């Protein structure tokens, strides 16, 4: 805040004859910092990529301690090839978080859909394509239910989805008899597990959905409106944004992405037990919050979420290679969530929210 | 305690942020029982000075601070300065909404030896009532503050500050206490502050409105570019013009900005708008005309901007814009926006702008559909729009990528203006358009209103600032009980005040 300069500039601006607002036809001559886009300085870039740097550092840290295990292709592959459910759940959580809602039921939707599909196909002998559509319909219905109670009735979404998530998981365990259900045709499994460049197709599906998400939120009017609904609902409404509709649809889109994740998950595993869905919720949400420190600091963003998922996967793998038991997952994911939310809060505060 | 000593003595306070000296060797003294105003443009160093006092920042070496003749070690320790009787009322008041006035006033004063025992609610309420009585305020201490008016909330915050003082001692520092208040409530706040000062407590108040400063304070300290350019000026000997000269360092161009009154042919009309409990208003505005709406607080005019733009549902009312006719009972913001009806709301950080998002994003929001395509919002027009606003309204710093929340109030208001004016609105509705902005920004903003009118926009400006109304309005409608009771043509500020307070017992501009 260079006050002298400000005042002089303000005087100069006031002294120049004012032109009226005509839609901004001739602005090329003004000395505004256009050239300074979002990635404006080395400092800024380093802020945006700090988590990526940390990720690489972490990888080399583990590689230095356990070079024989960490530097194997199989280890590196394992970071990337089994995160499909987390990537889809992150994107599902992102759909609601980016408009200021919070959907805790996405993991349950994923679990319900992952058991519903094999049950429809195997036990009921249904055509696979039809079964997939019905399974996606379950996701849409679950999202619509959450949206109705949250947006139309006006109950806090956090509580609604905490309840509906538990309910859906109960239904999943009921229809599957609490057992692992399987029996999907090979074609579907191939669509999930076929290797491309050494990684299964599910990896690429995850990247594609993140890219689509990132494009929509950064480069379309819809994405901008979603950002405003998330940032300040009243400002959005007074600018003519259909706030309720966007909130409503965010639940449906989130649940549908979770349903799609569930379908791909059971396709790649061959079978699924509904109760194992719960382990995905916390890391997915951790990844999304971790992602707010990347690329677009202070905002929920898809690329950040994707990086968050692989960041966490690298950490877990490294810690397990060091010989720590399965318990480390809970400790690491839990700690990561707290740290990620703290970082996200601090970044927002710095940006004057 | 030395009774003759200054209540507050600041000597040689400086503060540097990076390479910028934001406070340059500031010294001032405040006497017991004095009301001292601290004025200056945005960025002149007022807030920094207060933050040094509160212990939020550390002053540069060489400064000294004395309270009632006692030397205070620097940097200030917040608990130490409170013990010496200096309390702060910040802009946001710092009240807990769902707690009662009594609980808010007593927070932090629970008896530590009784920390685990039941709170003595009655005793607390007695204390609160006494603190409110000192201020002559009739507020029920048991009511949650969220249900209180802006004025009452401010009063509660001041009562809490007074609670910390021993009778007739101490210093209360207020940062823009009238920001959330209308003209009338500001008047009663002045009376409250005066009562506190009469008891011997000193008051230091940061304010933007110079008329307010003259009404409220005994003396003024003027900061410009971090330096004291006028210290302890007696308000009795100052005119608003004279004070403005000190603040700006030049003559304030107070000639009317308003352009010639356009030919009267109704372009925008409001028929039978239900306002308040029983009021009914009709307004008609020509193309290029600026019509002001004002009145006493609570007389209904404050709702008009929101009712005519669909932001609040109207019970009845019809709006005509050119050939289009809309029932305001059923209208929403979307449908009215399509006709070019735009609202610049009073509370820019709550209703106007998303403060965490950038200047450019905020500006382009209303035109995403019109100028972008569904699958690609387009980048160039957004950059151009932001550059346009930044240059024409003089937004500082001139950086479209900066989050709006990091700009000063005046610059945020410029961004808000730009956001809505770039759409070439047919009907521009403003509520308190220059509230909490400095003088240079005010002139830029009023200039933009006049420029919009010059382009053929019909403008409705609801404001309690008579100087603003006088400067840009072709006509001013005075509202009482939701009904227009007077229409003034290009009035001067005094005429407006007279019309607004006509028939009211002893409520002049200076309470």
Distance between the termini of chain A: 19 Å
Give the chain pair forming the largest contact, with residue counts: A-B, 54 and 72 residues
Q: What portion of the residues of chain B fall into strands of 2 or more residues?
A: 15-25%
Question: From the alpha-carbon coordinates, what is the Rg of chain B to the nearest angstrom?
Answer: 24 Å
Q: Overall mean pLDDT score of chain B?
A: 82
Number of helices of chain B: 18
Largest sheet of chain A: 2 strands, antiparallel
Order of helices and strands of chain A: HHHHHHHHHEHEEHHHHEHHH
- Tell me the CATH superfamily of the largest domain in chain B: P-loop containing nucleotide triphosphate hydrolases
What is the straight-line distance between the termini of chain B?
33 Å
Question: What's the number of helices of chain A?
Answer: 17
Radius of gyration of chain A: 23 Å
Number of domains of chain A: 1
The figure for the number of domains of chain B is: 3
Share in helix of chain A: over 70%
In brief, what are we looking at here?
The complex is a heterodimer of chains A (353) and B (511). Chain A is an all-alpha fold and 353 residues long.
């Amino acid at each position: 805040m260079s006050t002298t300069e400000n005042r002089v500039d303000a005087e100069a601006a006031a002294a120049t004859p004012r032109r009226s607002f005509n839609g901004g036809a001739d602005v090329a001559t003004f000395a505004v910092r256009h050239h300074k886009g979002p990635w404006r300085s080395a400092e800024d870039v380093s802020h945006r990529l700090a988590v990526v740097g940390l990720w690489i550092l972490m990888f080399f840290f583990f590689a230095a301690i356990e070079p024989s295990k960490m530097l194997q292709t199989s280890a590196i592959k394992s970071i990337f090839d089994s995160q499909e459910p987390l990537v889809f759940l992150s994107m599902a959580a992102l759909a609601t978080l980016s408009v200021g809602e919070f959907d805790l039921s996405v993991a349950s939707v994923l679990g319900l859909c992952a058991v519903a599909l094999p049950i429809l196909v195997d036990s009921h002998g249904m055509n696979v394509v039809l079964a997939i559509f019905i399974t996606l319909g379950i996701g849409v219905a679950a999202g619509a239910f959450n949206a109705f109670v949250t947006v139309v009735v006006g109950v806090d979404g956090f509580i609604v989805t905490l309840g509906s998530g538990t309910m859906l998981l109960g239904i999943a365990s009921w229809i599957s008899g609490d057992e692992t259900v399987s029996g999907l045709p090979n074609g579907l499994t191939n669509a999930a597990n076929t290797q491309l460049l050494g990684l299964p197709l599910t990896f690429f599906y995850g990247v594609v959905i993140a890219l689509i998400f990132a494009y929509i939120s950064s480069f379309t009017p819809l994405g901008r409106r979603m950002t405003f609904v998330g940032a300040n609902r009243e400002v959005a409404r007074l600018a003519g944004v259909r706030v309720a509709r966007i909130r409503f649809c965010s639940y449906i889109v989130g649940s549908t992405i979770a349903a799609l994740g569930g379908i791909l998950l059971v396709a790649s595993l061959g079978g699924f037990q509904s109760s194992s869905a719960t382990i995905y919720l916390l890391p997915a949400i951790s990844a999304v919050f971790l992602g707010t420190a990347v690329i677009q600091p202070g905002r929920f963003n898809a690329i950040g979420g994707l990086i968050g998922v692989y960041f966490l996967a690298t950490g877990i793998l490294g810690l397990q290679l060091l010989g720590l038991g399965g318990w480390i997952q809970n400790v690491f994911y839990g700690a990561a969530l707290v740290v990620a939310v703290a970082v996200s809060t601090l970044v927002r505060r710095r940006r004057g929210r | 305690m030395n009774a003759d000593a200054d209540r507050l003595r600041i000597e040689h306070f400086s503060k540097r942020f990076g390479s910028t000296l934001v406070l340059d060797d500031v010294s001032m003294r405040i006497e017991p029982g004095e009301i001292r105003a601290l004025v200056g443009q945005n960025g002149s160093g007022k807030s920094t000075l207060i933050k040094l006092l509160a212990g939020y920042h550390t002053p540069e070496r060489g400064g000294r601070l004395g309270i009632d003749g006692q030397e205070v070690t620097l940097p200030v320790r917040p608990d130490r300065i409170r013990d010496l009787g200096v309390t702060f009322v910040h802009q946001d008041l710092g009240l807990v909404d769902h707690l009662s006035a009594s609980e808010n006033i007593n927070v932090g004063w629970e008896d530590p030896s009784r920390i685990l025992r039941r709170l003595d609610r009655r005793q607390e309420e007695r204390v609160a009532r006494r603190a409110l009585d000192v201020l002559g305020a009739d507020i029920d201490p048991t009511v949650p503050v969220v249900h209180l008016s802006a004025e009452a909330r401010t009063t509660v915050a001041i009562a809490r500050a007074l609670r910390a003082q021993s009778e007739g001692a101490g210093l209360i520092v207020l940062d823009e206490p009238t920001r959330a208040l209308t003209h009338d409530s500001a008047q009663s706040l002045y009376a409250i502050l005066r009562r506190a000062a009469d008891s011997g407590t000193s008051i230091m108040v940061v304010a933007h409105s110079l008329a307010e400063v003259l009404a409220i304070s005994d003396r003024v300290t003027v900061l410009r570019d971090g330096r004291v350019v006028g210290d302890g000026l007696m308000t009795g000997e100052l005119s608003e013009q004279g004070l403005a000269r000190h603040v700006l360092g030049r003559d304030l161009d107070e000639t009317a900005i308003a352009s010639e009154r356009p030919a009267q042919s109704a372009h925008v009309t409001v028929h039978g708008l239900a306002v308040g409990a029983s009021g009914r208003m009709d307004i008609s505005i020509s193309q290029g005309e600026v019509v002001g709406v004002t009145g006493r607080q609570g007389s209904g005019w404050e709702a008009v901007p929101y009712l005519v733009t669909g932001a609040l549902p109207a019970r009845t009312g019809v709006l005509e814009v050119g050939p289009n006719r809309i029932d305001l009972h059923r209208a929403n913001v979307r449908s009215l926006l399509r006709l070019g009806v735009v609202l610049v709301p009073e509370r820019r950080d709550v209703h106007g702008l998303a403060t965490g998002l950038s200047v450019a994003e905020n500006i382009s929001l209303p035109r995403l559909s019109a100028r972008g395509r569904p699958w690609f919002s387009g980048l160039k027009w957004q950059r151009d729009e932001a550059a346009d606003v930044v240059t024409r309204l003089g937004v500082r710093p001139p950086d479209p990528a900066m989050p709006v929340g990091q700009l000063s109030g005046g610059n945020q208001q410029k961004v808000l203006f730009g956001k809505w004016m770039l759409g070439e609105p047919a009907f521009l509705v403003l509520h308190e358009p220059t509230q909490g902005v400095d003088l240079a920004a005010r002139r830029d903003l009023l200039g933009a209103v006049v420029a919009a009118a010059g382009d053929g926009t019909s403008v409705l400006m609801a404001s309690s600032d008579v100087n603003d109304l006088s400067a840009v309005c072709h006509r001013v409608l005075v509202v009482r009980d939701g009904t227009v009771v007077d229409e003034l043509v290009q009035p001067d500020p005094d005429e407006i005040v007279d019309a607004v307070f006509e028939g009211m017992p002893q409520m002049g501009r200076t309470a």
